[in-house]
Specification:
Helix 8 packs across helix 10, helix 11 crosses helix 12 and helix 12 packs across helix 13. 48% of the residues lie in helices and 20% in strands. Strands 6, 7, 8, 9 and 10 form a 5-stranded antiparallel sheet that branches. A 4-stranded antiparallel sheet has the order 1-2-4-3. By secondary structure, the protein is α+β, with helices and mostly antiparallel strands. The chain is built from 14 helices and 11 strands.
Amino acid sequence: MQVHVEEISPVKKRVNIEVPAEQVDAEIEKVYAGIQKKAKLQGFRPGKAPMQLIKRTYSDTMRDEVMRRIYEQTIFKALGEHKIEPVDSPTVESDILQQGAPFKFSALVEVLPEILLTGYTGLAVKKETYVPNQESIEAELKRMQENMAQLVPMGDDAVVENGDVVTADYTFTVEGFPNETSTAEDAQIEVGANQLIPGFEEGLVGMKSGETKEIHVTLPEGYRLPEAVGKAGVFTVTLKEGKHKELPELDDEFARQFGEYETMEQLRAKMVEFREKHETDRIQGELKDRIVQALIDKNPLEVPDSLVRRQLDAMLENLKNRLQSQHMSIEMMGLDDNGFRERFRDAAADKVRGGMLLMALVTKENIAVADEDLAKRYELIAAGNPDMLDRVKEYYESNHNAKNSLLAEIKEDKAIEFLLSSAVITEVDASELKQAEA
């Protein structure tokens, strides 16, 4: 067997293999002999058909089996001898297999690139400055107040206002599109929530119970029937009932409804504390993303396509699971599987690059996981629940693969902390940061 290795790129090699004619012929005879023992041909008992007839009838079967055997016998032996570790199954290209002739084929394999890590200390990154925002606290209180509002029937002479919830019957028609006609009875509509076609909810404002009205709209971009975009639509609406929202006062009684607070002052203080933690966690997470990107920028790296595809598959699956829990789908976001992979391919490639560079840093700086590191991670996963902590420990200590994945995750986190410990970090306003990243 002759083997020649071509370097196509830092992550691709072509292993050219030539199997001598004697070995090919020997495999062909073995396969034909095996076929002859089992072949069932009309006029012959199993195992008694003449070899000449076997060769005429089963040449394609023989060829497939011989090629499979040769691949199994040679490819991984050749890879081992040349110390090539593929990250995915080889792609095989071959000549036509013929008796009496050498068999030539090639195995295209992807490998991990050699990483010569440089310039990873003193990386310059920007960090968003945390700014307390009382307006966001008031907005959240307003949302809580809205959620606890009581709906009170409006009087006969009262008119619909933004924020009211109405019950209505309506018929919807579109100019030139008779199949777009639809009707609804006892539809519950929150006026001003912008859940329906623009212009419809605005048209409800000022109506009284029992009133019928035509509301004219223009079908917007993104309408489910693209050819109807820009066309005129008409809602014929009969308002059956309207209810005003009666908001509770933001007082101590309001605060007590959330269980652990006696006063609004306590509730506001807790909300400020929660927002600060949420925002500082977000800012720190984004800083970690930037330091990894800075490492990537300092160490350009080609990565195997197969690893990028796996990362994309994982990202897509995670997104689908999150959306499903919210009763949504990627189609509702205007995407399909192929569109997602195309749009997020670069992000997936950077995710792979970052992981490989961080693992290279772990090796270079001898970053290890101590027992206390693992104990802290168990506590983090258990989220302060003592019963859960025991189950978490038992799971990881009894599951070798899961524990190895967790150890790799901790090492990666420690590698990021190592980068941050020597980084030049400049705090900037959020608006400046967004402008720079845009």
